[in-house]
Description:
Structural class of chain A: mainly alpha
Low-confidence stretches of chain A: none
Helix content of chain A: over 70%
CATH class of the largest domain in chain A: Mainly Alpha
Largest sheet of chain A: none
Radius of gyration of chain A: 20 Å
Shape of chain A: elongated
Oligomer: homodimer
Mean pLDDT of chain A: 89
Strand content of chain A: under 5%
CATH topology of the largest domain in chain A: Tetracycline Repressor, domain 2
CATH superfamily of the largest domain in chain A: Tetracycline Repressor, domain 2
Amino acid sequence: MLRTPTTSSARRTRDRILDAALELFNERGTAAVTTNHVAARAGISPGNLYYWFSDKDEIIRELYAGFAGAYEEMWSGDEADVMDVTPAELLRRLAAGAALSHRYAFLSRELLGLLHSDPVLAAEYAAVRERRTATFDALARRWRSAGVIRPLDDQGIADLIQALWVIAETWLALGELSGTSVESADGERLLRVVLEPYLLPARSEVTSR
Amino acid sequence: MLRTPTTSSARRTRDRILDAALELFNERGTAAVTTNHVAARAGISPGNLYYWFSDKDEIIRELYAGFAGAYEEMWSGDEADVMDVTPAELLRRLAAGAALSHRYAFLSRELLGLLHSDPVLAAEYAAVRERRTATFDALARRWRSAGVIRPLDDQGIADLIQALWVIAETWLALGELSGTSVESADGERLLRVVLEPYLLPARSEVTSR
DNA sequence: CTCTAATTAGAGTGGATACTCTAATTAGAG
DNA sequence: CTCTAATTAGAGTATCCACTCTAATTAGAG
């Protein structure tokens, strides 16, 4: 349906639904949360919830869109600028993404399962992922030709990117299980231990542009 | 409850429940599968299912125990033998674990979420994980003192292990999303790209024991 | 102010679900 | 064969949930 609010109080209602859903999903997991729970926490009637969203899946998709959009912003901007990102900057951004993942904790835990049962969500995810890996891949190739990283064949580059991606996506949720508190620095160290051995000492300056 | 079957036909019943549940969980995800579905696929009555298991969570826990047990077997044996595992052998075993993960695909997708909502399961997982990382950690330290890998401080070793663990746990499920078929060799390559840079050329022979 | 469309409440419905209970059946010991 | 305990079937229950419908209320244009 994707109804669009016209008044500002309506926007507040729609947003309150999303906020309430996010809170509850993070606390109890999507499976244990019903639309009635969400409506109650949002302080509205169940009927009103269905006025704004056609079902629970749509709420989940909307939350995912919020997450993906925020993530996307980190990588938006001049294509050229993006391509000037240094390895250190990449690690910083990937680790920063973890802060986002923390806000949408339920996605870190459940995304794979959700994708398995919601083809619509799966399609959205696939699109995002494809764009992202393409960017990273291009970036890594650029590093290679600039002599920033050790020479690697294309397969090696793809694997390296994939390894970093997997870690960036999962370290937070997996780390939380260890009981000890998890900080952004931990994620960055984890990523660095993978990437660092491939970095070459700077020769002079990377030829910019 | 953990009822133990006495007759062999009873064992078959209990196992059929587990098999049916595993199939259905892998196909549709745990949330979409009811105890009635499981009983139907197993070809028994709902009442009979509740004779053997107290609820759905217990079935899930039992399946996880099966998975964890099979995994554990790969690393059982003489402590000394385990400590003689080479990096290449480690990669092989980690990748072999992926075959197991494939059989229990629903766990690859849902484990983090399940752990979040089932404290009992979470405790079991924590125990397994602790043992496992302790083993890997000891192994890596041994490699370090034997000159098999580059010298790393303890934090570095822990990070390296954690990175490998994260990838081993997740690459399969994440890879399946890319549409292209996923093979065990892919996982091994992914793990190798992380571990390889830390390997030193063999000096002579690792002093055994 | 008035009229229309947007928004909201809240009761209600059909269906499913987890789980229980009782009674029937079977297996195996002696 | 007989007796007991294990096993199984299947109907039944209380609950809950997703979602709908109608009617009330509000917001804003003119």
